[in-house]
Every structure is written in structure tokens, then in C-alpha cells.
Specification:
Elements: H1 3-15, H2 17-45, E1 57-65, E2 71-73, E3 76-77, H3 80-87, E4 93-98, E5 104-108, E6 111-115, E7 118-121, H4 125-128, E8 133-136, E9 147-151, H5 152-159, E10 168-171, E11 181-188, E12 201-204, E13 218-225, H6 235-246, E14 257-264, H7 283-310, H8 312-324, H9 329-361, H10 364-368, H11 380-405, H12 410-415, H13 418-422, H14 425-458, E15 468-474, H15 476-479, H16 482-490, E16 495-501, E17 513-519, E18 525-535, H17 539-542, E19 547-550, H18 560-563, E20 564-568, H19 569-575, E21 584-587, E22 590-598, E23 613-617, H20 629-632, E24 636-643, H21 648-662, E25 670-672, H22 673-716, H23 718-726, H24 731-765, H25 776-803, H26 806-810
Parallel strand pairs: 7-12, 9-11, 18-23, 20-22
Antiparallel strand pairs: 1-2, 1-13, 1-14, 3-13, 4-7, 4-13, 5-6, 5-10, 8-11, 9-12, 10-11, 15-24, 15-25, 16-24, 17-18, 17-21, 19-22, 20-23, 21-22
Helix pairs in contact: 2-7, 2-9, 2-22, 7-11, 7-14, 7-22, 9-11, 14-22, 14-24, 14-25, 22-25, 24-25
Length: 813
């Protein structure tokens, strides 16, 4: 576009400031939203792509099927990777990440801290997975049994900025982590946020003797390196063969089946629905935020097109004169595209600056729970994305105005512009209809999502979560003194109850499961799978659970220990029992009968349904003498302390003092049960807040366009308004007249929006085990909100015209 035409475009902007402001505001906001959401979506959709071999790496998942539905698990058997590699030559390599049972206490330089993100692994881990190395040689880092590789932040915590190579750290035995000094042999950069398997330390894993006995112990995340362009369907033959060779003839697998399959590394984050898995994302949030970004961009471009069409009447004479002076239609189209490009360039520049400021000065990163960065110099792909975004905006917003305005006949435009007033009318209605439909969809989906999250965060857990303090008991030295510690704690009047449990419910460490023999409805023992917990006899009372059949454990009955079980409702229903009391359960060497049924409570994250659960009582008479020190430290329990609602800080200080007295080896750490449960919903609540913010922006841009559109409409109809005023029409009647067409568009859009939103939100709700029914009230409220905002937006502009002296309107040119 020539310099004279650029100057002409800027003169138009200067003369019509409200038009320029509305378009720039809408386009700039859309750019900001697209950039922020684009950065988040890029992070979500590029999980694991920092690994150079990510296209060849697959995670192994497996399923046991007993009498009920299959147990689909992310954790696999410890020897599985080794056995697959040894028996099937198409598998190029494997790496296992063996998960600790509990947090690992690590000491170095007089610092002590518990870490969850510690894994045992194979020495070739740095060959298969890509790491940015700070110190050390990745090829030899984990060759020695006492070696450990640590992250940069792990190293800084213990050793500051000094080189930690060769330094010794001490680990206390935590499940599969051996209690021995380890030498730092490698330091790697902290892993990027967009990886599902996050760790701060990797130690050399040594298979125990007869490791194949662990073929029923699912404690490892197993990854395979397969040939390029591997056909995953062919892995089924390997799975079937493995079952025939290693599982089928084992008595433990009677009436059971086993299978395994591959998950592409890049699919784990958004496309995995397995139990015993690490935290994963939700593909529906990706779809949702992508839709919001498209909607916002579409609404802003619709504003531009609508306002350009509305301005056609004012610009008809200008266009007619240009054509008479010899300007071709193609050059006029170039001019109007150039005008859209100028708007886009300004919006891109302003949007980029605003986005950078928002990411730096506002809590956007914490809401998304990751570091989003708009660094064009460090990432040229962002510049390319900006150019593509600018091209899309220019084409979407400039195409129809350029095509329509350049087609106006010069003689018609100069003779009578009434045709110009009516031209494009139907398209303008269609575009407003699209805006309204999009707005209703966005509001309705946001309301139902908020309703679902409120339902999830307030649904009954099956126990009382308030004022319960969770404290881990580390090792037999403390567990052997548990009764003494409990008696000391109960002397404090602010402590209302104390109990213990083998695995804390709803914690990062999932409640374990196994296969056992259970009576069926006919009284015949058959194999089934269930989760299990070892508990103190008063757990049901301390946790405020409800016993609905039979009785609780009672320390007066010695036979309760080892021969009595309390089960949950789900197990009773799964077995088809009319009366659960007296039914037999066999788990390993332990055999007994059911004495009670507890009302279902959530012991795993609530995105999964409650599963069958068996509980039995701790034994006080276990002889721990002769157990090696490293095994003594492996035994863990969790203590649950019910405290009064008053003097909380004083009570916590009392707990701290008593634990330091009974367990001086370990730092005192605690967590309130309700806080740990809140953390389960934290990521979804953050995303819900962001959805609400962007939905509001979408509605604001729509209202901005309606305001601009109504201003042109009232200006064009000023004589009609003046005549109606002379004939006695009130301001309200005139406002209603001007808004009526938009109100009908809202009603028409409501029908289409309801159908689309109902289907979309229904798909999202399917990802929850417990969900609300879709409430038509949300759609009604959305329609009322859009109807009200549209009416108020038009009324705000129309009121000034309606109040104007009719004589001035009748002289309007």
C-alpha cells in the first residue's frame, strides 16, 4: 500500500476515534488472550519433546483381570522391562523408574529434608532420556551401586553453588531405597515443566536375587525403546506370548488374565486414564482453552467486519470518488486489506507488550502452574507464531470488508446511499448471531464447569476431614514407642483422638492393592482384587467414619487381630452379598471373616470411583527383634491426630515437642488432612479461574462490538428516531425498538448454543467418576446474562440519541 494510502487510513482512524478505539481494543485483547493461551497450549501439547528419542520411547501399561473389570495400571512389575528385553529382540532397550514407598529422608551438609521425587533406575537412563548435564559423565554416572545423579536445585539445596561432584549424601531406607551413603556422580538441569515424570535424584538400582519373584509387585514405571515408526498393534503378540510363558501356569493367576500395551511417551500426559499413575493432564482443558482462544479471536474479527459494514454508508461517497478518479477495484481491495493490516500490526505490538507485562507482574504463571515466557529472542518460533496470528487476523477481519466495500458502484454511491445502508445487512445479522451464540456457549460451559468443581470440592468424603493432623512415623524405633507417644499426646485436652494407619488415604502414595480369595454369593472362595489398609482399632471413630453393618475392631477381642476384617460397601456390592458378616477373606497367609462394613469413603483421588477395600487391625504383639536396621527403617505408618478447633498453634507446638522427644532423628513434619485434600483440586481450580477470566474477556469484546454497532445504527436511523419522538414515542420505546432485532438474535442463538454447549460440556463431564447432572438453569442464566448485557450495551448508546431534541435529528444529514 502506497504511503499516501497509509496516510489516508490513519486520517480515517483520526476522524473516527470511537471506531478505531473499539477495533483496536477488541483486536488487542484477542491478541493478548491468544498469546497467553497459546503459550499454555504449547506447553501442554509438547510434553516430553525435550527428549531426543521421544518418538521411539513408549511407556508400558498393564492390566490384571480377575472376576470383575480389569485393573489398568501405570505401575508395572519390577522385572518386566528386563524380561521383555531378554525375550523379544525387537525391543531395543528399556529403563525402569522404581518408585519409593514413602518420602525419602536425605541428609547432607547438616541439612535434612524429605523428598518424594527420588527413583531407582537403570544405568542407561541418560542414553534413552535427554538431560542437560551440568557436571559429570552421563555414560558412566550410574555404573557404581553407590552412585546417585541429582538435579541442579537438589544440589543447590544441600551444597549451595559449589560443585557437588564426589560429595556424599546419606539416605534413610524408605521402601525400595537402600539406606547407605551415596556419592554424587552427576548433576543435571532441572527437568522442564512439561514432563510427566519429574524427579530430583536418580540412584543406581540393583535387582535383588531372584528378582523374578517380584513379577506380581507393581512398583516400577517401565519405558521401552522401540524401532522407528514402530507399529504398536504388533505389541499385542508380545503381550500374549509373555502371558503364556510367565503367568498362565502360575496358581496365583487362576481364573485371571494379564496383558500389557504401549503408550507413546507424548501421549502419557493427556491420554492416560490408569490407576497408580503420576499426575496427568486433561485433554478436555486443552480443547476448552483452544476453543476459547478461537472464540475470542473470532469475536474480535466479527466486530471489525460488522463495524466496517456499518461504516459503508459513510464511506460510499469516498469509494465512489476514488473509482471515478480511476482507482481500480483490486487497488481498493488492497487499501482495505492494508487498513485491516494496520489495525492488526498495532494490535500485535500492543498485545505483545501487554502480555509480557502480565506474565511478569501478575500471578498468571501461578494460575497456570508453570513458567510461561514470551521471549522472542530466545524462541524464534514465537515470532513466527505472531506473524501467523497477524496474517490470520488480517484475513479474517479484512477479507469481507475489502470485497464488499470495493464492490460498491460509484454512480449508486454518489446518487443515493440508501442501498449502501442496507447492503451487508443480512451478513451483519449473521455475524451478530455467531457472536451471541459463542457468548452463550462460553458462559454456559463456564457455569457448569464451576458447578462441577464446587460439587467435587464439597462432596462428602465419607469421613470428617476437619481438624485432623497427619504425621508420618518413620521406622520401627518410633513405631515401637507408638503406644507411649499416643498416651502422652492424649494427656493434652486439645487432642481429642489419636489413631494410626498403614497408608494415609488420599495421599500422593496410593493405597496398595492385591489379589486375594473372597467368598462369592454362594459361599465359594474365588479370586478377586481389592485395596487394603492396616489400621488401628479406633480409626473409624477418630476419622468420623460410619459403620453401617456389624461392629468395629475391638481391642477386647484378641481374635480380631489377624482373623477379622472390616470392608467397605463397594466390596459388598461387588460380591453380591445380602449379608457380608461372616464372609471369608484370604490374603496371603492371613485368613479371617468380615465383622463389619463401613460406609464408603474416598481413600484414593476422587476422579476415580471408590474401589473395594479390606481393612484389618495392627497387631501389638509383632516381634520386631532381629530385623536388620535397614529393614527397620523401611517400615512406615501414618498417625492421625484429631485436635480441638481452638488453640491450634499451641497444640501444634505441643505435638512438635513430643515428637522431638520420641523421634529426635527425623524432622517434625505434619499436614492438615483438609489442606492435603484441597491440593487435589488446586490445579483444576486454577484452570477454572483462568476459564472464567477468558470467558469474561470474550463477553466484553462482544459487548464492545455491539456498542460500536449500535452507535452506527442509531446514527443512521436518527431521522426515524426524531419522527417517532415527534409522534410521541418515549425514550424506552425507542431503545426497545433499536434493541429488538438484537434480542431476537439472542433468542435464536440461544437454541443453537444450548445444543452445542450441552454436547461439549457432556463430553467434559464424562472424565469425572462423580459428576453433576447438566442443569438447564445454567443455559437459562447464560441466555439472561447475554440478553441483559446486549440490551444494556445497546441502551447505553441509544439513550443519548433517544434523549436528543427531535428537531436536531430531523436536520441530520
Amino acid at each position: 500500500m502506497a504511503n499516501t494510502e497509509i496516510r489516508a487510513a490513519f486520517r480515517v482512524f483520526y476522524r473516527e476515534k470511537s471506531y478505531a478505539f473499539i477495533n483496536l481494543a477488541g483486536l488487542t485483547l484477542s491478541v493478548v488472550c491468544c498469546l497467553i493461551l497459546g503459550l499454555y497450549l504449547r506447553s501442554e501439547l509438547t510434553y516430553e519433546q525435550h527428549n531426543e528419542k521421544y518418538k521411539q520411547i513408549y511407556r508400558v501399561a498393564h492390566a490384571f483381570t480377575h472376576s470383575g473389570p480389569p485393573d489398568r495400571m501405570a505401575l508395572t512389575q519390577i522385572p518386566l522391562g528386563t524380561m521383555l528385553k531378554e525375550n523379544y529382540p525387537e525391543i531395543l532397550d528399556y529403563v525402569r523408574f522404581i518408585q519409593p514407598y514413602n518420602n525419602v529422608l536425605i541428609r547432607a551438609n547438616d541439612n535434612a529434608r524429605y523428598w518424594r521425587t527420588i527413583y531407582g533406575t537403570d544405568k542407561n537412563v541418560f542414553d534413552m532420556f535427554t538431560h542437560e548435564i551440568v557436571y559429570g559423565d552421563p555414560k558412566t554416572a550410574l555404573n557404581e551401586p553407590d552412585s546417585i545423579a541429582i538435579s541442579e536445585s537438589f544440589a543447590k539445596y544441600y551444597f549451595g553453588n559449589s560443585n557437588p561432584m564426589g560429595k556424599i549424601i546419606k539416605t534413610e531406607a524408605e521402601g525400595v531405597v537402600s539406606a547407605l551413603p551415596r556419592k554424587v556422580t552427576l548433576v543435571f538441569r532441572d527437568l522442564p515443566e512439561n514432563t510427566h515424570l519429574k524427579y530430583h535424584a536418580l540412584y543406581h538400582w540393583v535387582d535383588p536375587p531372584n528378582v523374578n519373584r517380584l513379577l506380581y509387585n507393581a512398583r516400577s514405571f517401565t519405558y521401552l525403546l522401540m524401532p522407528e515408526n514402530y507399529n504398536m498393534d504388533s505389541f499385542k503378540a508380545i503381550s500374549d506370548s509373555f502371558f503364556e510363558r510367565f503367568f498362565k501356569d502360575n496358581p496365583r493367576m487362576a481364573h485371571s488374565t494379564w496383558e500389557c500395551w504401549l503408550q507413546p511417551l507424548t501421549d502419557v500426559h493427556l491420554h492416560s486414564d490408569l490407576i497408580y499413575d503420576l499426575p496427568t493432564g486433561n485433554i478436555y482443558y486443552v480443547y476448552g482453552f483452544l476453543s476459547v482462544a478461537v472464540f475470542i479471536l473470532l469475536v474480535a474479527c466479527i466486530n471489525y467486519v460488522n463495524l466496517a459494514i456499518a461504516r459503508a454508508a459513510k464511506r460510499a461517497k469516498e469509494i465512489g470518488m476514488r473509482k471515478i478518479l480511476g482507482v481500480s477495484r483490486s487497488r481498493l481491495m488492497t487499501y482495505f486489506f492494508g487498513e485491516a493490516a494496520i489495525f492488526t500490526i498495532i494490535a500485535l505490538a500492543a498485545g505483545t507488550v501487554i502480555t509480557a507485562v502480565l506474565l511478569k507482574l501478575t500471578p498468571l504463571n501461578s494460575l497456570f502452574n508453570r513458567e510461561l515466557s514470551l521471549s522472542i529472542t530466545n524462541d524464534p518460533r514465537i515470532l513466527l507464531a505472531l506473524l501467523v496470528l497477524g496474517l490470520v487476523i488480517t484475513l479474517l477481519s479484512g477479507f469481507y470488508p475489502a470485497f464488499y466495500l470495493s464492490s460498491i458502484s460509484p454512480m449508486t454511491a454518489l446518487a443515493d446511499n440508501r442501498k449502501s445502508k442496507n447492503s451487508g445487512f443480512h451478513l451483519r445479522e449473521l455475524l451478530v448471531f455467531v457472536q451471541v451464540t459463542v457468548s452463550i456457549i462460553v458462559i454456559a460451559c463456564t457455569l457448569i464447569m464451576a458447578q462441577q468443581m464446587f460439587f467435587i470440592s464439597h462432596m462428602p468424603m465419607g469421613f470428617d476431614k476437619n481438624n485432623r493432623v497427619i504425621i508420618d512415623l518413620h521406622g520401627l524405633d518410633v513405631i515401637e514407642k507408638y503406644k507411649l507417644l499416643k498416651n502422652e499426646l492424649l494427656k493434652n485436652s486439645s487432642i481429642l483422638g489419636v489413631s494410626a494407619i498403614s497408608e494415609m488415604i488420599l495421599s500422593e502414595q496410593l493405597v496398595p492393592g492385591d489379589q486375594g480369595m473372597v467368598d462369592n454369593a454362594e459361599g465359594v472362595m474365588e479370586a478377586t482384587s481389592f485395596s487394603y489398609l492396616e489400621v488401628e482399632e479406633n480409626l473409624v471413630n477418630v476419622m468420623g467414619m460410619e459403620l453401617i453393618e456389624g461392629r468395629n475392631f475391638d481391642k477386647k477381642f484378641i481374635t480380631d487381630i489377624g482373623t477379622s476384617f472390616v470392608v467397605n460397601e463397594t466390596l459388598v456390592k461387588a460380591r453380591g452379598w445380602d449379608n457380608a458378616l461372616g464372609k471369608r477373606i484370604q490374603l496371603g497367609r492371613m485368613t479371617g471373616k468380615i465383622i463389619g462394613v463401613v460406609k464408603d469413603f474416598h481413600f484414593k483421588p476422587i476422579h476415580t470411583p471408590v474401589e473395594p477395600l479390606v481393612m484389618w487391625q495392627f497387631s501389638d504383639k509383632v516381634n520386631y527383634q532381629g530385623i536388620p536396621d535397614e529393614q527397620r527403617d523401611m517400615i512406615r505408618r501414618s498417625m492421625i491426630v484429631h485436635i480441638a478447633n481452638s488453640n491450634v498453634q499451641k497444640t501444634l507446638y505441643f505435638l512438635s515437642e513430643k515428637f522431638q522427644e520420641f523421634d529426635p532423628r527425623h524432622p517434625f513434619e505434619y499436614e492438615f488432612l483438609d489442606h492435603s485434600i484441597e491440593k487435589l483440586y488446586m490445579s483444576q481450580e486454577r484452570l477454572m479461574k483462568m476459564a472464567g477470566i477468558f470467558s469474561g474477556i470474550c463477553i466484553f469484546i462482544s459487548c464492545l462490538g455491539l456498542y460500536g454497532l449500535s452507535s452506527f445504527s442509531t446514527e443512521q436511523r436518527s431521522k426515524e428516531i426524531g419522527i417517532r419522538k415527534v409522534l410521541g414515542a418515549s425514550s424506552l420505546q425507542i431503545i426497545t425498538l433499536l434493541a429488538r432485532k438484537t434480542m431476537w438474535l439472542v433468542m435464536a442463538g440461544a437454541l443453537v448454543a444450548t445444543i452445542i454447549a450441552w454436547y461439549a460440556i457432556g463430553e467434559w463431564l464424562e472424565s469425572f467418576a462423580y459428576r453433576v447432572a447438566i442443569n438447564p438453569t445454567a443455559f437459562l442464566l447464560s441466555i439472561i446474562i447475554v440478553l441483559g448485557l446486549a440490551f444494556l450495551t445497546i441502551a447505553a448508546q441509544s439513550f443519548k440519541t433517544a434523549q436528543k431534541n427531535p428537531s436536531l435529528s430531523l436536520h441530520h444529514e
